[in-house]
Amino acid sequence: MLKVNEVLRVKGSTLYTCSPDAKVEQSVQTMSEQDIGSLVVMEHGTLVGMVTFREVIRHVHKNQGKIGDTTVRSIMNDAPISVSPATDAEEVQRLMLTHHARYVPVMDGPVLLGVISFYDMAQAIVAAQQFENSMLKAYIRDWPIENSK
C-alpha cells in the first residue's frame, strides 16, 4: 500500500512558506514565480494555516479584482486538514475529495514535513499502477508451461 512518506520521498522536500502577516500580493508573487498553488503559513516555526489560489481568487472576487494591502492572515485557511507520513494514499484521496482540498500538509506531530498536492497523489498512484502492471506482465511471461501428456 502506497504511503504519504513514499510520495514525499519522490516529490522532494522543498517547502514554500509565508508569514501570516505577509501581504497577499507578496504571496501571489511567490506562488507565481515558483509555479505553485499554495503556501504554508508559518508563525514562530508552527503551521498556522495554508493559503492557496482558491483563497486568493475568493479575495480578489470579493474586492472587485483588487488585492489591496490585505494580509495572508485575513484570507488563509487557518484549519487545513493534514496527514501523517504513514497515511495510506487511499485515505489521502478520500480526505482531499471529501474536503475539496488540493493541498494537504504532511505533519509528523508538530513538525511540518511537506505538502502533498492532488497532482502529486495522481502522479504517485499512476506510477504505482504502472509498476504493478509491469510486475504482473513479467510474472505472466514467466508463467510455467505445463507438459501436455
Description of the molecule:
The chain is an alpha+beta fold and 149 residues long. It has one domain: CBS-domain, CATH 3.10.580.10. It is 43% helix and 19% strand. The strands form two sheets. It has a three-stranded mixed sheet. The chain has a two-stranded antiparallel ribbon with strand order 4-5. Strand 1 (17-18), helix 2 (24-34) and strand 2 form a beta-alpha-beta unit. It is elongated. The model has no long low-confidence stretch (mean pLDDT 90).
Layout: helices, strands, pairs:
Elements: H1 4-11, E1 17-18, H2 24-34, E2 38-43, E3 46-52, H3 53-62, H4 89-99, E4 103-108, E5 111-117, H5 118-141
Parallel strand pairs: 1-2
Antiparallel strand pairs: 2-3, 4-5
Helix content: 40-55%
Total number of distinct structural domains:
1
**Average predicted confidence as pLDDT:** 90
Name the overall outline: elongated
Please count the beta strands (DSSP E, at least 2 residues each).
Answer: 5
How are the strands of the biggest sheet laid out side by side? 1-2-3
Question: Key terms for this structure?
Answer:
149 residues; alpha+beta; CBS-domain; 3-stranded mixed β-sheet; two-stranded antiparallel ribbon; 5 strands; 43% helix; 19% strand; elongated
